[in-house]
Design a protein that fits this description.
Helix content: 40-55%
Distance between the termini: 75 Å
Strand content: 5-15%
Number of helices: 12
Number of strands: 11
Order of helices and strands: HHHHHHEEEEHHHEHEEHEEHEE
Largest sheet: 7 strands, mixed
Shape: elongated
Length: 514
């Protein structure tokens, strides 16, 4: 089944959205033209009838009211005629021969009697029956005119319709005296009107089509630009899945979100690459560590089988020593890999100095045999268990930490040197900590090796060698110490010792003091 890519889906979605918007634009534009043309035509027509507004304002100034138009409906019809409607001389002559006083001439409008018939200064006005040849038919424009007073009440004409246009009528002092209203056409049925609408609609349609084409091109470009990083991420993920851990993605996007995503991906790839490199190195180092005792045991056994060496007590002792080294190495490896073995099974308030004293006592003889001195410096009052600081931890695990640190100094301190263990209590505003410092004499650890001594299987053999026949440790003891200390919410770090060797500083949070 054919499936669209995310970029294609984004393009199709944007295109459909823009197409719908363009169709709505064209439809509303056509509707707006149809509904807005009438009011627009009314505005144009009313703007051309300033002469009628002047007439109405003149009538109002003469009578100070609209009473003349209210009382004489024929006057309203006469006023609506444009000036050229009185242009034929024969019409004027015919009016004069009828004998009816149809209009009394005035200086402003000689063809119109602008006085109210109820005014005492003028006779009663009577509209004569105008002969058919003299009366011109009033067009639709005149029928759509309406006169309102200042309160929007109808004086003459029809009621104003929605969409009408109006002109404000004012007196000589600038006060509003009424409104001349032009209603919109009832229907645009003429050919000219329909042609205008069709022309405008065609223009809108072509504009919409051009806009849609431009929008499609823009949506395609935007979809490609916005979603291109996703394609790079997909390709990078495939490379990682295929084992190419050196894969990195260029951060060339302008989007902050995609930039953070690509940066996170590169960090993940770098960590995976580092972990894989460490794993391979760890496996190689572990194989080397296991090969050494196994090779020694094999050589001893083959020598006995070939008759080169007799199986005596010394041979058994050498085999036992290599076997114990192998067992110790496997145990350290398991404790280092399986985090559950370094997690304290039970945490309780305990005296860590008691475990330190016990670890020192258990190794005191070995220190003496190796010619390495061992000193413990602690406040005298702490020698009483009730006065010693308390920490929350596991006694067995902390005893193992102290043993490993003592073993490390014993293994890598030259004969004639010594190890100094100091205990102090650190206080600040928020908490108190127990600090235990292990400092030994030369040899020391090189600066390039110092940051790595807590890593699994790392041994600074180049600077901390033993020449007394000791094969050294497995490189796992300090890594195990760090795991246990972290489980106790403590901290352990290494630095050069002022005595010439290595300084290991262990801090544990105090849970209470007795």
């Amino acid at each position: 089944m054919f499936r669209l890519s995310l970029q294609s889906k984004a393009f199709v979605a944007l295109t459909i959205l823009l197409a719908v918007m363009m169709m709505m634009f064209v439809g509303f534009s056509r509707l707006g033209l149809q509904r807005g043309l009438g009011p627009y035509v009314a505005e144009i027509e009313l703007a051309r009838m300033d002469w009628l507004a002047d007439r109405l304002q003149t009538i109002y100034r003469h009578n100070q009211s609209w009473q003349a138009i209210i009382d004489q409906p024929a006057l309203w019809r006469a006023l609506r005629r444009p000036p050229n409607a009185w242009a034929r001389p024969e019409d004027l002559d015919s009016r004069a021969n009828t004998g009816f006083p149809f209009f009394t001439r005035s200086p402003d409008f000689p063809d119109i009697d602008i006085r109210s018939p109820k005014s005492p200064q003028s006779p009663t006005f009577v509209a004569p029956p105008t002969p058919a040849p003299l009366e011109r038919p009033v067009d639709g424009l005149a029928r759509r005119l309406c006169l309102l007073d200042a309160k929007n009440l109808v004086i003459a004409g029809n009621e104003p319709l929605p969409g009408h246009a109006r002109t404000v009528l004012k007196d000589s002092q600038g006060r509003t005296i009424g409104f001349l209203v032009m209603n919109p056409p009832e229907g645009l049925k003429r050919e000219a009107d329909r042609a205008f609408l069709e022309k405008q609609f065609g223009f809108v349609l072509w504009t919409g089509a051009a806009g849609l084409l431009l929008a499609m091109l823009l949506s395609g470009w935007l979809a490609h630009r916005w979603l291109k990083p996703i394609g790079s991420l997909v390709e990078g993920a495939r490379n990682l899945a295929a084992g190419r851990l050196q894969t990195r993605i260029r951060e060339h996007t302008d989007s902050e979100e995609f930039s953070r995503l690509i940066h996170t991906f590169n960090d993940m790839a770098e960590q995976l690459d580092s972990m894989e490199t460490s794993r391979r190195q760890w496996i190689g180092d572990m194989a080397h560590e296991l090969r050494t005792p196994l090779a020694a045991m094999r050589a001893e056994i083959e020598a006995v089988q070939d008759g080169i060496r007799q199986f005596d007590d010394q041979t058994a002792e050498r085999l036992h020593r290599q076997l114990m080294r192998l067992i110790h190495l496997v145990g350290d490896l398991r404790d280092s890999v399986d985090s559950s073995t370094v997690t304290p099974a039970r945490m309780e308030n305990m005296h860590p100095l008691e475990q330190l004293h016990e670890a020192i006592a258990s190794l005191q003889t070995r220190f003496e045999q190796a010619g390495v001195g061992l000193q413990l410096r602690e406040p005298p009052e702490w020698r009483q268990p009730d006065n010693a600081p308390l920490v929350r931890g596991n006694a067995q695990q902390l005893h193992r930490v102290f043993l490993n640190l003592l073993e490390n100094s014993l293994r890598y301190t030259d004969r004639g040197g010594y190890l100094q263990v100091s205990t102090t209590l650190l206080r600040d505003k928020s908490k108190a900590q127990l600090q235990i410092v292990f400092e030994d004499t030369s040899p020391g650890v090189s600066p390039q090796d110092l940051p790595h001594i807590f890593e699994r299987l790392y041994r600074a053999e180049s600077s901390r060698q033993r020449v007394n026949g000791d094969l050294g440790g497995s490189g796992l003891g300090l890594a195990i110490c760090r795991s246990i200390v972290q489980q106790h919410e403590g901290h352990i770090e290494a630095s050069p010792s002022p005595l010439g060797g290595l300084r290991v500083t262990l801090t544990l949070p105090i849970s209470g003091e007795s």
